[in-house]
User: What shape does this take?
Amino acid sequence: MAGGALNAVDSLVRSDAVWAGAWRQRLGLRSAVAALRLMGRQDEDGALRDAVLLLAPGGDPGPAGNVLVAYKRLSSRKISVDSEILREMADLFALRFDNALEELPGLVDDLTKDGKAAPFAVAELVTKVCALRPDAEILAWWLADWLLARKLGWSYPVPMLVAERYGAVFRTGTGKGRVRPGDETFARAVCLALVQGSAEALRQATETGRRAEQLLAVAPKLRTKGAEIVIRQLLNEDALSASAPGTKLSRWASRRLFERLETLGAVRELSGRSTFRIYGL
Amino acid sequence: MASQNIAKSQGRAKRTVKADTSGFDRELEDLPADLRWREWMMRVEAVIFASAVPVDRETLVRVVGRNCSIDLLIDDLRQELHGRPYELVSVGGGWQHRTRASYARMIQASAAPTRSTAAALSQHEATVLMAVAYFQPVTRGELSAMFGKDVSRDTIAGLRDAQFIAPGPRSPTPGAPYTYITTPLFLSAFGFDTLRDLPDIEMLEDAGLLNRKNITAEMMGPGTADDDEED
Assistant: This one.
């Protein structure tokens, strides 16, 4: 069952849609919210977007924003898991870096080469990481998404596992508590989580795809110079702040551009505010 | 003043990317295993002793051999310091020598000038700092709403001068005030390794000392004025 679900996501990933960046980023945001719950924080996705988008360059977005940064990095760049990237992630997840974490690149490498089916490799990875460092479960799930992509030969990870951590699939049969890494039924729960995660990813893909088509359809109607960069960013990012940093547009130009796009139904204002607007597909 | 210098040097340490490791032998292949281990321990302790800020793993790896376990080295060093009035503590993502807490009163009584990392805080400042630590990123306005009275700019400035807090992302409310977050110095001064070591907020909630929901609901209430766009 997990194989079938993953196959559907796999063909979607391989079709290499232009909006795949925005799709992964949006799943990353969802994962970050779940990961924060694992850390004992209740942050909403809007607040996370704000923390990262309204940050001055080089600034520190705070503990919640850092988790979103970690997931953004997972889904936007081709990364190999070595001790440098792990150190960076441990920093972002506010984890102490010690010898146990230094062993992880080797562990991930072994599991990548080992012939096990992807869901079971993922379950084993999470179990082993949690056994090494019980407080590093958040990092374990982050690595799990990475391992899944590596196993299936995707160029970018699609974050979807951690969001199911608090879903129905990890509930125990008795109705009390949740399945923990190391339990007998954990591997089965991970398979189910993959099914659920894939379903959610596909649902998100349908929505993102539809909106992206709308955006591409209205793109020729835009007369703003430099609009292509904004369009490209919209297709690659979860959201953009209305001042569109990184483009050459003046703030008036970018504001007009986003308002035009909004009237044409190509983007949405995501924050619900009349100031500090944040636009996305 | 001392704490400012420390924080500055902390920033500088981060900026130094490449350290020169060519002048000495890291691997010590020609020594027998136990002497090699001994020498590594000495080196690590010397670096930690000399450093002004907690020394992280990355720094220590530069002075020992490639397959040397830092954690085991530190364990051995701690063992050695067993009968001493100071110890090796793990704070702010690194290690530092500190006198044992039980000698704090004697050191104070002696009035010797110490390399103290923490500026003295008033009760009010300490409370504000605690609120920032738990609710970061948080603005001054939100802090005032939490305390039910104005948290003055001076209080915030004092904490900023002591390098315990730093500005984070700007808040999307009228005036675009800065939010505040805690710094690595805060972690080191209060003996935390990471932010996760803060006492559990859920336990505080269960004890009825805190209520996040009420606070956020209050903060969301008045903040919807229609100002001109500021982006």
Q: What stands out?
A: The longest strand of chain A covers residues 278-280.
